Amino acid sequence: MLFAVEGCCHGELDSIYASLSDLEQRHAVKVDVLLICGDFQAVRNAADLATMACPPKYRSMQTFYKYYTGAKVAPVLTIVIGGNHEASNHLWELYYGGWLAPNIFFLGYAGVVNIGGVRIGGLTGIYNRKHYQMGHYEAPPFSDDDMRSTYHVRELEALRLKQLRQPLDIMLSHDWPQHIAKHGNLQGLYRRKAFLQPEVEDGSLGSPPALELLQALKPSYWFSAHLHVKYAAVVPHDDGTATRFLSLDKCLPRRDFLQLVRLSGDGSEPRLRYDAEWIAVLRATAPLFSVSRARLPLDRASVAAATGGRYDFAASEDEKQQVLDCAGGDLTVPLNFTQTVVAYSEGQPTVAAQSPFAENAQTLRFVATFKLPADFRTQKTSVVRRPAVQTGRAALACGAAEAPAGVFQSVGPIWPTAPPLSEEIDLEDDESRACGMCPTRPPLGVDNPKTSDAAMAHEHKSTAFVSVVNLTPYFTCCAK
To answer: Please, are residues 242 and 236 in contact by the beta-carbon 8 Å criterion?
Structure first.
């Protein structure tokens, strides 16, 4: 199977798909799946745009709404995660994942899927130690602070991913795993992004939870974005395996934003399927979810107190079979996209107030199918300990009662040392140019098929990447 990987999307779907089509024609290949590493910006209307955390001058409707309404259809199955510039109210509708538009699938705040025997995991958002141990307390309409904290990774999502025991082929994150830069061509990175050098050297560049996941999951490939630079690294593991890391740029002319990688899979039809092990972990850890603003420790003792004594949630064969039973023996992701809001129309104002939260039918079907708590969005914890509750095989068998809410005590942050990386990556950095009439959009480009990036093509010859870089996207000035 041939995968295309995109760095930051920033709503440039038309340009990305045009570039992908050009890539296919140039190299006589057919891409099966497109992976996008965050800042997707699934903006459906002006109310969605108001929830995107960035300076107002960078808020642009872009073209996702056309894919949402069906006016356009993604030409290839597209799997995405979220970053730190998103229509956060839209993503919150699909906490467990789902279709953002026909043929465009969101992996959720954390998620794992299978396609053609290739296993893909993802973690939405970026790390900030201030909110890492909190519940998902934010809800639309967001305050200015909540608009930013809502995209901060929570410890629960990291804990869930750490329970995976089956091999993972691809892992997606928006920000880089901590210390990953030290496994690549640092001097090349410093030449392109000199301001990153102090953060690399003091260890503050990257996400500590993502580093833990890299060490625990040891995926074959790890793709990221966020820093608007192409950078490759190879991380060896103590078992003799290695993870090939690649970060890509944002979609702009003469930038390295798109890459191909071929994986063999198992030869089955490339159909998107839920992952039984992942859903078994979701079911077992359901009591740990919270919308409380309190700090929620996930140490062994606290977790065991909330789950009837269990603190290891690695899925058993019985639990995976129960997931399959819940799905009627077929884990194919249903094509059940539905519109939940009225989409933007050309000529309408692009400034509006945020809308109240609206539940998504896809989420309701997901929790009903796999017997997850239907009221998880109101599930809070208490600082008062309660009697242990039954979880695991008996409590989570298909058709059993929903798992009860977890109970914790408040504690302080667990990452008290290095300061977090600045979240506001400049959306109009020193290499981008404006067309004059349209200052927040890049200009029309000229084809530049030159290949570059010696770090990828020369230093890491053993990777399976097809070196296809500097593909100029076809932008249309919004003034026209």
So the answer is: yes
